[in-house]
## 1
Amino acid sequence: MSDAENGTAGYKRRRVQRSPSPEYKLDDDDNYEPYIPVAQRRQAKLAKLTSWGANADKDRERQQREEEQEREDEEREEERRREKERRERTLLMEAQEVHDKKAAEDAKKTEAEKAEEQDAEILAAIASRRKLASDLELAKGVQYVEPLKTTWRPPRFIRERTEEQHRRLREKYHIIVEGEDIPPPIENFTDMKVPEPLVKFLKSKRITKPTPIQLQGIPTAFAGRDMIGIAFTGSGKTLAFCLPIIMFALEEESKMPFTRGEGPVGVIICPSRELATQTYENVLTWTDALAKGGYPHLNTLLCIGGISMGDQSHVLGKGLHIVVATPGRLIDMLEKKRFTFDQCKYLCMDEADRMIDLGFEEDVRNIMSFFKHQRQTLLFSATMPRKIQDFAQQSLVKPVLVNVGRAGAANLDVLQVVEYVKQEAKMVYLLECLQKTPPPVIIFSDNKNEVDDIQEYLLLKGVEAVAIHGSKTQEERQYAIKSFKSGAKDVMVASGVASKGLDFNDIQHVIIFSMPKEIEDYVHQIGRTGRSGKTGIATTFVNMSTPEQTLLDLKYLLMEAGQKVPPFLQSIEDPRAAQGGSLTGCPVCGGLGHGISNCPKLEDTQRRQMASHRISDDKGGY
Ligand SMILES: Nc1ncnc2c1ncn2[C@@H]1O[C@H](COP(=O)(O)OP(=O)(O)OP(=O)(O)O)[C@@H](O)[C@H]1O
């Protein structure tokens, strides 16, 4: 029989003939039915029909058995399916239960707890920053464990006092200390062994008794200890960190006079040129007073951007004792080897939290890498958030923390007035506000254009005003400060950054035209008045454009200082209180009205970091 006769037979036969090996066996082969010729099939059918009768019973039985088997199979299959469904449902339910339980637990957690968890994550990220030490020290694993030794000792009668007596004295002046073997507080300059001519000079400037930060800070620094000094604005921190460096330089010069190319023995770093200039001028007056009193003459160099170092060649031409600097110019001079830190043993940072926190951290490390020996490090500021304190402490040797009042608290000698003034009414109201006190008055705005606008407006109204901000030339800035300090000008309009830490005589009134976002800036700004024990007024304009969180920080600060809280500030609720959270201050900026997760300073730092990464990425691409 041909293939044509049985249709598909040729295909099947071809497959039979190929007799596939097991590994090539396709699924179709499972259904393979061997070919049975038609005649044979007919015969088979006939035989079946004929035997039907005889086998009918057997067949029925078999059929019944088969049907039963089939039913059983179906039942078993159904049972298996049901079991599977049951198992799946149980797993699903368990998963749902776990999910529901977690949701319930989350719901039970207060918003404050969730915020705390978030805060802990952010803090852990901050904590991972590198220690404040030079790269070389970090790379070599150099770690100093003992503070520097100095020859200074407190007078015997003070050494003989008990720890309890020291404690009571500190308590009397509201001084909080932390650390090991803390040197004693000393209540007058003579007992601190400050040279007589300087004591007399200070007296002539009405500096007769040390302020609390000086009373504990100067002995601590004289004893060679690393320290973190925190005290409110205008409390005399400058003398506290300058005096030890002057005394150390005097001692070194007395041992062996310095000649050209030698020194400095100490460096003071400030975050702004103006602050560095002011500190430099202070050091000059104090070292001059000593020289006039028969002590060796000390050379001090001002090392800041915007001035020609040629003007100071007379200082560089001699032995150098002290350098007062801003970071950028200092690094430049060190890199050019105009002087070295081979003999430098004293490093002080003013407004240290700003230096560490606001972009100078790498510069500070760079500066540290020029030191050849162990140094004594002093960090001072009016604001020092806990997080920065912790970080700084890790970088110092057995540090002593000297704290007068809460870090970041406002000076209690400043009467703080907060007024709601609509944006468009500010200028006119400013004139009215100027009538509150006689000059000198400082007006702050963080916006450079606004600083210029205010000055222009005041000049038009016949008010003698100067202005200072970061976009002014160094000459303009110096002129503004000089004419305001000398009393030739009544009002200074300033951006916060340009005037931080500046000590002007007897400022009567500080007007904050636009409230800074960060409460620390506010504390520094109002701190231009109420200095060295005198009182002053600070008037601050706020309105709808002031962020609520800033207002809340302000509200708590006023409450802490026992000042009047105006009704519009009173009505601002703390969302953390509603959530039952803790109302402790932000560890990053010290603001009392918010937590770390919505800290404006942290946001700002992160934004700047991202911007600088972008810039370095861009640079890397070329
Ligand atoms: N023991 C003292 N008694 C009286 N006045 C002092 C004393 N020590 C310093 N002063 C004066 O107090 C003023 C403020 O001092 P200083 O500038 O050192 O304050 P500060 O704590 O550094 O403030 P800021 O945090 O704003 O920089 C200065 O004019 C200074 O001469």
## 2
Amino acid sequence: MAEELDMNKANVQGGAAAAAAPAKCACGHDHDHDHEHEHHHDHDHEPGGFCPCGHDAVSGGVGHDRAMGRIFFALLGGILTVNSFLLEWALPEQAFAASISALFGAFVLALPIIITAIKDLVNGKVYMNELVALAILAALASADFQTAGIIAFFLLLTIIIETRTASGAQRSIEELIKLTPNTARKLSGDDNSEQEVQVTELKIGDRIRVRPGENFPVDARIIAGESTVNQASITGESLPVEKSVGSDVFAGTQNLTGLVDLEVTKVGEDTTLGKVKDMILQAESSRTPVVRIIDRYAGYYTPTVLMLACVTWWFTEDISRVITLMVIACPCAVVLATPTAVVAAVAAAARLGIFIKNVAHLELASKITAFVFDKTGTLTDGLLSVVKLNPFGEVTPAELLMVAGSAERYSNHPTAVAIQKLAEEAKLELDEATEFQEAPGKGVSAKINGVPCLIGRANWMSDMGVTVPEHNASETEGMSVVYVARDGKVLGWIGFKDKLRREAPAMIADLRRLGVRYCAMVTGDRQSVAESVAAQLQIDEFKSECLPEGKVEFVENVKKNSRVAVVGDGVNDAPALAEGDLGIAMGAIGSDIAINSASIALMTNDLRRIPMLVFLSRKSRMIINQNLLFGMLFVFGGMILSVFGWMTPIWAAVLHAGSTLIIIFNSARLVRTGEELTLEENLAAAETEQP
Ligand SMILES: Nc1ncnc2c1ncn2[C@@H]1O[C@H](COP(=O)(O)OP(=O)(O)OP(=O)(O)O)[C@@H](O)[C@H]1O
Ligand SMILES: [Zn+2]
């Protein structure tokens, strides 16, 4: 009824506007920012009425003052209606008093509904409020005030229930917002004097201090101190994470053990938490393809029902049938079928650290039949370690490492990180590198002390005109290898290894159990390494020594006969991620690149989230279908019953409210999906904490 229309308007204004509106209100941080959202959401907040935002949150959520108004109307009208029955029973001779009470009751109950219907008419919206309002008017006109009152009461009740669930997204968000404190300790001057400020006043670059036990108010980087942090609110992973100077921390996560000073890196909507919030809001206003089809025919719906009502009246002259028909035809159940389920699914995903940018992708995830994984950092943990320094001829291992470390100073590639780490452990004083350049998926070139140096894969070396000497293949068996060259001569090679992620085999097995037919792997790494990983995971197909373009090509081929999801870590596989029907980025917490290049981002590196995502999306599709089927059967079945006079108006109103509740409860089943996964992790965390 009223709310459906509101949701509809929010949709028309586009996800962004709808999302921006309540998000800006941020319900709860402080109360000065007033009700900016009312313009967007079309709320009629009474000026001077109490603030609908979070803090005092009795009922919580945008529009709760209006809900309160409705509850007041419903109560008052309900009492008057009940009173009329009581009068009728206690003072049978005072029939007039009873009908006056019923009339007032009906009036109070019907008024909000009729006003909304008139507003809709004025706005040129023939949707569904008109049906209900007409039904009530018809009941009033037939002087059956008690019936009119009871119908209006139950319809108002439905509106109230709907408001509370339509703001289901709102409530999930309020839970998120509760995670961030309202005030922060800002540091100023050289003496770091603390000053308490509102979080909304913080700007990028400000310094703040956070004590153990407190939640971080914004995204920030540690500049002094170290601590462990519980990031479960964003990643769904409760294992505490160690943080020290230079580490990033995120708004809404909890500082456990240490006092830390931080530099603010992101505030408000730009924080990871802010993005999660946006995602949930978008889910509410998003429309899956089925909803789009329904919307297309919605315009014909009300006129059709009205025509049916006229026909019924013409043949039966039974106003009660007409009223019943118009009440039961109100399609709340159908309209709520999708958004309630989608919001529940997205909220469940967010709790698991699965960030779904577009709800269409939630639906798509249920139809994926092929997966293509990147190797390094995705199936393996990407924490390479150097297992062999193999200099040629006169060159010493230290010299090899020196050149490699200096050339790789500015690269973030896993191989570069491994080299830098070893160089640091060996306490090497690295040389300055100039003219640094990285060829994605190939290697880096730089000038060290003015001498051109290269480090990268063998065939790239050859392309760059450096001959790589032949050597025994068994030497490098199972290792990732990069060559180091200085001034056109190869100095030697460095061998690396990394480990398979612990949950990788289980993940592949789970995907197969879910009916995924094909799992493949692409990698820039060498054949022998790829072979061993593919064998351990029993992968259907793999391609090694790919350039980033090669990965795209591979995905294109798979796409020809399946719906394919590409899983990667964002390093040299962003184009492949974008090429997949679905791109899933791992370890996206704090990494904007990963979030931007993928359609779905996993905040953690836990691969078990992937089968969980497929499962969740299938479950939500099933629930949406159930809801739609139930809603349509209910409405059409009810219409048939009422046309033939087998239902009363009051029953229609009661069942209408009941059907709405059924939809809401059915969707709520999604919210707990995946809890067992977090539970398992909690147990594991508890185990590791024990000595
Ligand atoms: N910064 C770098 N320094 C040295 N070698 C590099 C660098 N970047 C890429 N390479 C070389 O190019 C190869 C391919 O790199 P790419 O990032 O495409 O894949 P990868 O790291 O092997 O793993 P995957 O493709 O599975 O993620 C690497 O194996 C390495 O030999
Ligand atoms: Zn309805």
